[in-house]
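Re: your question about Pantothenate synthetase

S., sorry for the slow reply, the queue was backed up all week. Below is exactly what I fed in.
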Amino acid sequence: MKIVRTIEDMQQQVQELKAQNLSIGFVPTMGFLHEGHMSLMEEAKKHNDIVVISIFVNPLQFGPNEDFDSYPRDFERDEKIAEQLGVDVVFYPSVDQMYPKPLSIKMTVTDRTNVLCGRSRPGHFDGVATVLTKLFHIIQPSRAYFGLKDAQQVAVVDGLINDFNFPIELVPVPTVREEDGLAKSSRNVRLTPEERKEAPNIYKTLQVAKEWIADGERDTNKLTDRLFASLETTISGSIDYLEILSYPELGNIDSVDGKIIIAIAVKYSNVRLIDNIIIDVA
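Result:
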């Protein structure tokens, strides 16, 4: 496994791989790898000749109340995980390498961001789109892998790839879950024992929504109200949002039809959990 720290060296690696007609599966990360990242790497390994991951804590996607400096970092641990999973190249640039001087062009994501988590994180997806544009140009992957746990990010990446004609196949990977259904996250350790017991009710509520839709309920407002009332009785945390939207457009809808997302965020004492399901309703 190669560790590449400069853009120039990474571009040289890519040129050599392209000359051999090798496909590149790319997994962008901010490091501190967990089982969700591992599932992306495993999926990339199945369908590509070469797997490249990036580890870069991107300052542009942190808001004023989000501490970039305290974001967890452990490159030695990440390196071991990547090697065990058969990753071929780790791109590990510094902030100075990625942003040597202030940008002369700024990207603004104008759609798919004013709902769900994007509503409370203005500018976050602008930073995501900027770093991914740079990484896509540097690495030139055949396929890029993103976890559906953050389905809004997947929707934004879908827009980025289509709007700017990147010759990249976007591969959304299903959420990795605990045995009780709770979406796996490094944040789960911050739940109290009581919160951890009840947190699976978030996913259970999403499954109930699926059942109600299968039984014929199509009115979005009625579904949302019923789900909110149901979830509220089974958790001690506060519901940040519970939304039913078209997907990947993330538009408001009055009636359930076509591909939709049902997404929930719950604030607990020390952590905020998100989860969702995406279903295609005929």
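The chain has a mean pLDDT of 95. The chain has two domains: 2-173, 186-281.

Happy to talk it through on Thursday.
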